[in-house]
Specification:
The chain is of the alpha/beta class and 698 residues long. The protein is built from 27 helices and 19 strands.
């Protein structure tokens, strides 16, 4: 490899494996990574299928770069793949290139134990002495197949046993003296039209699975080859399966030389007939050459001319015959007086040209794989945002189902957050009679009230354990505990029920519950939403006017009751009250009625206006809860435009922009990471693809 080529390869490798071409959009703080790294990253894939395909693209890029790095050595041994269907005669064809000793180590026959279940690579014997060549080839095979090679035994019986180990992917490597003069190597491939594949047990398999495995194997081994021989029979020329096999070969080796080899032709068919028949196939597919051979077991084989008649095998002294593959010209009629033979193919192929074509082939494969990577990012981005929209729908549906009051027209109930409870307590204090406001005890910290109620919640249902003043705040308050409180378990179950897409399936129940608890705790302390101040003040004024002097005096003695009443009425339970995440909710009037005011006394002419305002408060709180669940579950919140689009698509789940800042929670699982190619990264890859496609052959 020339120095300029080495520099280009180093640059290309750095661009793909090292340069930070991809940036993280969500969650913030993950920074930038290389293309190969993100393609293989599980959290970056929007689905398991994309994770698998991304891994394959990443691995293939690395493999192809390794092949390019070692091409200088392997350029001296261009390989020709021999491929075809079951009993097409691939191994028989390979034998025609080998010495008698090599022929004895090749399995031939129709039985399953005589088939080729592993890739067998035949190289010229003199290349065995070239340590750098053998090392380079072995390195390529390890990179492509994930493991090294196994030497084919010189003993024919042991070689047969090696051939018949279908549960291994390890290729067999063999050397033969007769290949020295040909300057090419051969790859004897497993059957590609059946379920007999390396690394798998024999027998019937799923056709879709077989096709996928076959294509993957061809693509892997295709990285080593400069040309291929497609072996078929005369009766299979019109078989649709042959076109499918050819398509897979071209996909794996788009720029290799292609040769069609027609085997097992009956003597009754003249070469010109077969040529004309094959030309119909060549009209659909491009081949660089075409060969044929007659059946060795035909009764009238003796009637054939000596130029095309099967001949005695080099491996035996008996009358055993082996086919003779001769050329059928594509551009003109067959001349029986000047046949060319397949075993002379090596002399017709210029090793330097084949090596150059191989180099171009690998560059084309790198370019195609990079193109696949660009398509992967497009598809991954589409699926990722589709999945995020599904998560948003699940969260919005669960929040609406849990926080809406079905008995009052699905009105969103106000959640008694710290802000709402403090608003009531402060307004009650501000509107209290002057002699109560003068009480120093009135300034006691609000947390004292919270602590009392937190202790009470731990004993829900055990009224005797509660302080007497708390038991008397509201009749039957312990019963309302179960009716008014939303526990993390409740919200978790609603999320599961709303998840008809399975977007939360990757989270175990404890993980989901933990995320929900985090969102509830953050809401309790961080939600800033309050009720309309003027209306709350007016209601609190009416409250003080309604209650009797004796109750006011008792409040003066225990002013903490004023602070605690709105909380006890709906069981607001902050985080530090024993660890259980709970939301408490009630209608706006329930919060005041719980203080002892009468419903009649609170009936005002502006009730409808107030209800509309309260509904907006509930929606804002619900929207904040939705946003906090996004944070806790590790999905991005919708932007203003995305929120507007979501509301148009789901008017019954309409949300407001959140009023709580977004916070990345490092300890929580992230449902999905969003990575995208940076503009300069996409430009660099597009430029590299164009360069690889147009780069001159070295």
């Amino acid at each position: 490899m020339r120095q300029s080529d080495e520099a280009k390869l180093a640059r290309d490798r750095s661009l793909i494996e090292t340069n930070p071409l991809v940036e993280c959009v969500f969650p913030p703080g993950l920074g930038e990574e290389s293309l190969a790294t993100i393609l293989a990253r599980r959290q970056a894939a929007a689905s398991s299928d994309l994770h698998v395909s991304g891994q394959k693209i990443s691995e293939r890029l690395r493999q192809l770069l390794d092949v390019l790095a070692s091409l200088d050595a392997t350029a001296r041994c261009p390989l020709v793949a021999v491929v075809g269907g079951l009993n097409a005669g691939k191994s028989t064809l390979v034998r025609t290139f080998l010495s008698p000793a090599g022929q004895r180590r090749v399995l031939c026959g129709a039985s399953n134990d005589a088939g080729t279940h592993r890739f067998v690579i035949w190289l010229p014997a003199r290349w065995r002495e070239d340590a750098s060549l053998t090392a380079a080839l072995t390195q390529q095979l390890e990179s492509i197949m994930g493991q090294g090679v196994e030497l084919l035994s010189e003993d024919p019986q042991e070689a047969r046993e090696q051939y018949n180990r279908p549960t291994t992917n390890i290729p067999l490597l063999a050397f033969d003296t007769r290949l020295d003069a040909l300057s090419i190597g051969l790859i004897d491939s497993p059957d590609i039209q059946t379920g007999i594949l390396p690394g798998a047990a024999t027998g019937p398999v799923d056709e879709v699975q077989t096709t996928a495995q076959r294509a993957e194997l061809l693509q892997q081994m295709g990285q080593l080859c400069s040309a291929f021989l497609l072996v078929t029979t005369a009766r299979s020329l019109h078989d649709q399966a042959l076109g499918s096999v050819y398509g897979e070969l071209v996909k794996s080796l788009p720029n290799c030389r292609r040769y069609l080899v027609i085997n097992k032709v009956r003597p009754c068919y003249a070469p010109e007939q077969i040529r004309q028949d094959a030309m119909k196939l060549l009209a659909r597919f491009r081949f660089d050459g075409m060969y044929m051979a007659y059946r060795v077991d035909a009764q009238d084989v003796a009637t054939l001319s000596a130029a095309v008649r099967p001949e005695a095998s080099l491996a035996h002294t008996d009358d055993m015959l082996h086919p003779r593959f001769f050329q059928l010209p594509i551009a003109h009629d067959w001349d029986p007086n000047k046949p060319a033979y397949l075993e002379d193919l090596g002399t017709q192929l210029d090793a330097g040209t084949l090596a150059a074509e191989h180099h171009r082939e690998i560059r084309q494969q790198v370019a195609q794989t990079l193109h696949d990577a660009l398509l992967w990012f497009e598809e991954n981005d589409t699926q990722a945002w589709e999945r995020i929209h599904q998560v948003w729908m699940v969260l919005a549906t669960a929040c609406h189902r849990l926080l809406c009051d079905a008995a009052h027209g699905n009105q969103v109930r106000v959640q008694a957050s710290v802000a709402v409870a403090r608003q009531y307590a402060d307004t009650l204090r501000e509107t209290a009679p002057f002699y109560l406001r003068l009480s120093g005890a009135m300034e006691r910290p609000l947390q004292k009230a919270y602590g009392a109620i937190g202790h009470a919640v731990a004993h829900v249902g055990r009224a005797a354990a509660l302080p007497g003043w708390l038991r008397n705040l509201h009749p039957g308050w312990s019963k309302k505990a179960h009716e008014s409180a939303i526990h993390d378990e409740d919200l978790k179950e609603h999320l599961r029920l709303a998840d008809r897409w399975g977007v939360l399936d990757s989270l175990e129940d404890e993980q989901l519950k933990d995320a929900v608890a985090t969102a509830l705790h953050r809401f309790n302390y961080q939600d800033p939403t309050v009720l309309p101040p003027e209306q709350v003040q007016e209601w609190c004024h009416q409250y003080w006017q309604q209650i009797g002097r004796s109750r006011k005096l008792s409040i003066a003695l225990r002013p903490v009751m004023i602070l605690a009443a709105p909380l006890a009425a709906v069981l607001f339970i902050p985080l530090d009250f024993g660890g259980s995440a709970v939301l408490a909710f009630a209608s706006a009037k329930e919060l005041l009625l719980a203080l002892g005011a009468s419903a009649a006394g609170l009936a005002m002419s502006s009730d409808k206006v107030f209800d509309v305002a309260v509904e907006a408060v509930g929606k804002q709180q619900l929207s904040n809860q939705f946003a906090l669940l996004c944070d806790a579950l590790g999905v991005p919140r919708p932007t203003t435009d995305q929120l507007a689009e979501f509301n148009r698509r789901h008017p019954h789940r309409a949300l407001l922009p959140p009023t709580i800042p977004s916070t990345t929670i490092r300890d929580r699982p992230t449902l999905l990471e969003l990575w995208q190619l940076k503009p300069e990264g996409e430009t660099a890859l597009t430029t590299l693809i164009a360069e690889l496609t147009a780069r001159e052959i070295p």
